[in-house]
Write a structure and sequence with these properties.
The complex is a heterodimer of chains A (about 600) and B (about 350). Chain A contains 23 helices and 14 strands. Chain A has 3 domains: about 210 residues, no CATH class; about 160 residues, P-loop containing nucleotide triphosphate hydrolases (Rossmann fold), CATH 3.40.50.300; about 80 residues, no CATH class. The longest helix of chain B is centred in the N-terminal third of the chain and has 32 residues. Chain B has a two-stranded antiparallel ribbon. Chain B has one domain. Helices cover about 75% and strands about 0% of the residues of chain B. In chain B, helix 1 packs across helix 8 and helix 5 packs antiparallel against helix 10. The chains are: A alpha/beta (about 600), B mainly alpha (about 350).
Chain lengths: ~600, ~350
Amino acid sequence: MTQRLPVLLFALVMAVIPFIPGMPPFWLVLLDNIGLAALVAMGLVLLTGVGGLTSFGQAAFCGFGAYTTAVLTTAYGVSPWLTLPLALLVSGAAAVLLGIITVRLSGHYLPLGTIAWGIALFYLFSKLEILGRNDGISAIPPLAIGSLRMLDPGTIYFAIWFAVIVSALVTMNLLDSRTGRAIRALRRGHIAAEAFGVQTPRAKLLVFIYAAVLAGLSGWLYAHFQRAATPTPFGPQAGIEYLFIAVVGGAGYVWGAVLGAAIVVVLKEILQSYLPLVFGGQGQLEIIVFGIMLVLLLQLAPTGVWPWLMSLLPSATRRRADTGAAPLAHARPELPSGPLLQIENARKQFGGVVAVNDVSFEVRAREIVALIGPNGAGKSTTFNLITGVLTSSGGNISLLGKSIDNALPQEVVKLGVARTFQHVKLVPDMTVLENVAIGAHLRGHAGAIASMLRLDRADEAGLLAEAARQIERVGLSEHMEQLAGSLSLGQQRIVEIARALCVDPILLLLDEPAAGLRHMEKQRLAALLRQLRDGGVSVLLVEHDMGFVMDLADRVVVLDFGTRIAEGTPDKIRTNPDVIKAYLGAAT
Amino acid sequence: MNTTILLFLLQDGITNGAIYALLGLALVLVFAVTRVILIPQGEFVTYGALTYATLSAGNVPGTAKLAVAMGVVAFGLDIFVARKSLRLRGMLRALGVNIILPLVILALTMALAGRQTPIAVNIALSLVIVAAIGLLLYRIAFQPIAHTSVLVLLIASVGCHLALQGMGLVFFGAEGQRGPPISGMAFTLGQLRFTGQNIAVYTITAAFIVALWLFFGHTLYGKALRATAVNRLGARLVGIRTTLSGQLAFLLASMIGAISGILIVPITTLYYDTGFLIGLKGFIAAIIGGLVSYPLTAVAALVVGTVEAFSSFYASNYKEVIVFTLILPVLVLRSLAAPAVEEEKD
């Protein structure tokens, strides 16, 4: 629970602040504003910093929360506490609608889409009769517990900061879980995550909704704090400001949101009160400073203030994950006597280029098959066809007699096919253990809500124990708690193997596993693969190190320019004239 | 609906659409070369328009001074970057582009202010001022982070928008301005009245579309610029000067923005913050064009302009809502058409 202690201290300090004698009420107003902004920014941290989805439209979700409670409490006299779940529901539902449309889009379309809807919703808020048009809705009742009416900034302060601290805890819980790992993998692209069964569109939608609900909560609090709701605080300018807050604080860090909110809110206040004195002139000068600072910050400190601040503190020992739980159950289908993986006339064309040209071969149970060939022979493309990353242009691929033509990667891995990548696809800022645990994604069951409330611990312990077991198996135990990005490339490849083993595979596809390994490491890898084979796992590997391949493989399939030119035992392949010609050129 | 209204709305829509098309083209241009999504495009519009209006009113616009200030910063950056290998030629170039050029422009502006200058001189001066700002903006804000992801560039772009818009308020004040029309010519065709301004908008837009399409599709230099966006390192290895192509793209984009501004400021009153919305409508067109296609962007811009004209007639309250919601079905279609591709990030 070392993670919790600073939070508890922080909560205590925040709880004491209003009771400090002589505390100017204006400072409490500032703190309230900081809390409100921190809530929205926290959602953005998860969305942008962790999940890699940028949104300029979060202010609109605040608007949904604020207007929901404003309309219900003023026009229908509903109690503010009853409107809380409704406000969250409305912002969440809006996020579902907009999210379904936009989260599937890659890269820059999402932020552009968020700018557009941010503006559209702002105009909608300011034109709708029921929302009071530009004047908004006023005379919103204050929050009240019994006879305590939260009228002044000093009392609603507690509601706001209670929400901030609870949200921070819930967000941290979510990140430190099975779902959290899936979210953290999103930023590095979707192929690796999907290869282990993560439904990436669903994970993206989830963070999107989560961020919107936090914004809705902030909007609901805002409405009862200001006792009014007008369109301006929910416009595009505010949306940009929230993103600014997240970037200032450190977009990858939950507490960065709080810090960023504090910096920006205080700075804005100072700029607003002093800039006109210094420069005279008209308002909005702080906007100029903000804009320039944002650009400067991206150039000088793109990771934000929080990580810099943390690096000043003595580094706390990394919390060792509890990996002592019983390993996961081992469920394996009856292995067939015939072929495990059957590829018949598989074909892949990219425009006019035939990358894989009617290739056929099979992998039997308890067998190591090597796929070799010169660069550009179509080896990795074949892997991508088998695992569903690419859709084939023709032919059949079946596993255990069941066709897996053009199945989604998430379906293929469910059948027990796990893979590694030619270009390592790990999440560099996650530990080796966490990276490997992504491999066991499908073997856990805890959902997002359970993770937020820490009801997932038994499930989580099983996954981590399994991951630890596989890391030990590949011989990287002493690196378990290191960040994956700090390992050498050869070690990262081994981490990928451990991750694949977490699937509990019946077929392991390894893309150049020995590249970057030293001689001894290669020998250990070969021993491990043999041991796996004897334990019932078939291996299909692409490799350029001929000594390694010929020593290890039971059979070798040779590709050249997308076509299979030979197949047989290593001895036969060594002397095959076609193979020699493909590698060394014709002697003519 | 009667035909007169229909025709009138169509004409209005096409005139607006042509402006959006110009802006959309500039956005595609900048994105294709630098991967920057140019949110401050709208500020180039207001700067161009209001600089022109200020000059026409006989005053010195603040933008001319801004160019000088930005030049000083850019010069400092150039010297700092080259501090290890200071060469006279490079220094002179930096001095010429960053310091002397903006100073000459400012001197010229101050010398001409208050006199009866011909419209053509005012237009030329406004274009040069805004072009200098565009070029220097790339040098200061984007060149140091040119290698980062599209998202980082986008956030920086939003930062530039904020700063430039804020400065727009300082330079031009909160009141809207109008500029003198380029030509007083007007004629009637059937029930429609065409002004010289309309015709100028149409011809200039068409000329830019053709020119950009020819330049990027059919000249070696145009192709080199596109290569820069796809792979900076590769482009540098084959001898393309990536920093120069970025500056050139911004120069063109800011000039296109300024031209659009000068074209519309005689038709509508422009405020310091009007540009943002106008620019965003250009964006919608650019997004429909997938940020790559010039002709598609132009067509999309005409659609945006027409939809805007019709919605301002039939549902004027919800005009902006309708226009900005246009983007959503487009994004849906895009997401269905092209499955997301893997991007190597960070």
